[in-house]
């Protein structure tokens, strides 16, 4: 069975997070996405320090599917350089791991 990972991504707003999250689940690239809500981001972009409100989301998938999921999020994303990272999951319930496997991939 595939290792479980969480894919963390930041979006311009809730609508974009929901649209991309739903697409990822419909396309079986992720079993689930949790949209965490607004957060304040402070970052450097084009040699200026920017502040904006963004929306964070966590996608649950298998490690083998994570590269395809990252590519798909990036293709649908409004940012030139979207923040998308893969976080390993050290351990989880076996039935949760099986659920992720069953509902993503194939």
TrEMBL record:
<comment type="similarity">
    <text>Belongs to the CutA family.</text>
</comment>
<dbReference type="InterPro" id="IPR004323">
    <property type="entry name" value="Ion_tolerance_CutA"/>
</dbReference>
<dbReference type="InterPro" id="IPR015867">
    <property type="entry name" value="N-reg_PII/ATP_PRibTrfase_C"/>
</dbReference>
<dbReference type="InterPro" id="IPR011322">
    <property type="entry name" value="N-reg_PII-like_a/b"/>
</dbReference>
<dbReference type="GO" id="GO:0010038">
    <property type="term" value="P:response to metal ion"/>
</dbReference>
<dbReference type="GO" id="GO:0005507">
    <property type="term" value="F:copper ion binding"/>
</dbReference>
<protein>
    <submittedName>
        <fullName>Divalent-cation tolerance protein CutA</fullName>
    </submittedName>
</protein>
<dbReference type="Pfam" id="PF03091">
    <property type="entry name" value="CutA1"/>
</dbReference>
């Amino acid at each position: 069975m595939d290792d479980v990972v969480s894919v963390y991504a930041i979006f311009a707003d809730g609508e974009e997070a929901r649209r991309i999250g739903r697409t990822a689940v419909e396309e079986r690239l992720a079993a689930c996405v949790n949209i965490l809500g607004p957060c304040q981001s402070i970052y450097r972009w084009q040699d200026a320090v920017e502040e904006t409100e963004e929306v964070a989301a966590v996608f649950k998938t298998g490690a083998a599917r994570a590269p395809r999921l990252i590519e798909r999020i990036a293709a649908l994303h409004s940012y030139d350089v979207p923040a998308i990272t893969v976080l390993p999951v050290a351990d989880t319930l076996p039935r949760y791991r099986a659920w992720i496997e069953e509902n993503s991939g194939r």
